[in-house]
Amino acid sequence: MRSFSAVLFRRIATKTRKNPTTDASVDLFTSLAVPQKNAIRAKVLECLSNETEVSVRHKIGDAVAELARQYAAEGVLPEQAHS
User: Fold this and answer.
1) What is the separation of C-alpha 12 from the centre of its chain, rounded to a whole number of angstroms?
2) Sign of the alpha-carbon dihedral angle for 12, 30, 73, 48
3) Any domain includes 83
4) Percent of the chain scored above 90 by pLDDT?
5) Owning domain of residue 59
6) Is there a domain that residue 33 lies in?
7) Do residues 48 and 60 touch, judged by C-beta distance below 8 A?
8) What contacts 78, CB < 8 A, 6 or more positions away?
9) Number of separate domains in the chain
10) What is the chain's Cα-based Rg?
11) How far is CA 79 from CA 4, 24, 26, in A?
């Protein structure tokens, strides 16, 4: 179940939606407000650090990589996102 949760999270985070202000398509995670992004990022990293099963760690690692890709696409380092 934990493995499936990580896969499901990644799929939802990468769904695209239209940004209402610019009418451009953006990933769902990218469209969230900074406090929500920070909370999600912290929880996913916590899950990664606490997971003991290797196959689940790989799936969570994939989710972390996807978040990093979206931060990079925004041109923002996660440390800058705290501001």
Assistant:
1) 9
2) negative
3) no
4) 53
5) 2-76
6) yes
7) yes
8) 41, 68, 71
9) 1
10) 13
11) 28, 25, 21
Between CA 82 and CA 28 the distance in angstroms is 19
Kindly state the helix (H) or strand (E) to which residue 16 belongs, with its residue range: strand 16-18
Which pairs with CB-CB distance under 8 Å and at least 24 residues apart come from 61-64?
Answer: 62/6, 62/7, 62/10, 63/6, 63/7, 63/9, 63/10, 63/13
Average pLDDT of 51-58? 95
The pLDDT value recorded for residue 74 is 81
Max distance between CA atoms of the chain, in angstroms, equals: 42
Is residue 83 over pLDDT 50? no
Residue showing tokens 């972390």: 64
